[in-house]
Design a protein that fits this description.
Pfam families: Amidohydro_2 (PF04909). With about 300 residues, this protein is of the alpha/beta class. The protein has a single domain, classed as TIM Barrel. The chain is built from ten helices and ten strands. The strands form two sheets. The protein has an eight-stranded parallel sheet. It has a two-stranded antiparallel sheet with strand order 5-6. Strand 5 and strand 6 form a beta hairpin. The radius of gyration is 17 Å and the shape is globular. The N and C termini lie far apart (about 45 Å).
Length: about 300
Amino acid sequence: MNPMIPACLAPRDVSRPKVPPPPGACDTHAHVFGPAARFAYADDRSYTPPDAPLEKYLDMLDAIGFARGVLVQGSAHGHDNSAMLDALKRRPDRLRGVAVADSEVSPAVLREWNSIGVRGLRFNHFFRDGQLHYRGGVPLKEAEALAPVMAELGWHLQLWIDVKDLPETMPELKSLGLPVVIDHMGRTDARAGTGTAGFQSLLRAVGDGWCWAKLSGAHRLSRNAPDYPDARPFHEALLRANPERLVWGGDWPHPRVEGEMPDAGHLFELFQLWTPDLPTQHRILVTNPTNLYDFPN
């Protein structure tokens, strides 16, 4: 293993929530990694995850009580979607995927992925100190060439971005004419508060209906484990903006987490606590992901 590439901690054992999710509930943000002996990690990567294969992910879903899951291509595998695609082929009844692809990938390949269960492409527009923070992702500028076939397939564009950069990115996103899904409530720092121009732009986009947000990553906004109280106002503001454009995800196995390793079961209990209205919970956990990821009703 390259000593210059930091290794990630393994995920914690998952606690079972006191109140299970409703039938048909979907975890919309997770990753499968490896096993490395079969699906090698990219040489040029920002972190080395522990092996987190399909079987471990399904065990986690079962522990929380989720019927369905969405696998998002993690940057540790670079542009090689093989581990994620293999998982989709093995459990087409239960899983959908969000892949990565640059403009070199042919429409025929994207259509093949669609038949396997891919429903979107993820792009990296997450900067730190002027540089993309994760190696192995695909920059947003590649989306223009891919947008026509994505639209043909009914796919969405998933964006890994800090919302501080969202206002200046809005014209580019709108010009693509695709539904946009923003990771982790905009991956801001909770200490900045909800009044920033970036987060307010996310609220408007979600309110207008062309943009979705994942109610995920409280542990990436906040360092105040395990309950992340300073992330709650972001969650609640998005609920007020438009619950019809929200989905939930646990972010298992929590790669490159900064601070304490979260418990995905407890993260789900926080969702329940922060979303007290049961019909709204059902919309976010069942109705919205069924529509966004094209699961059968």
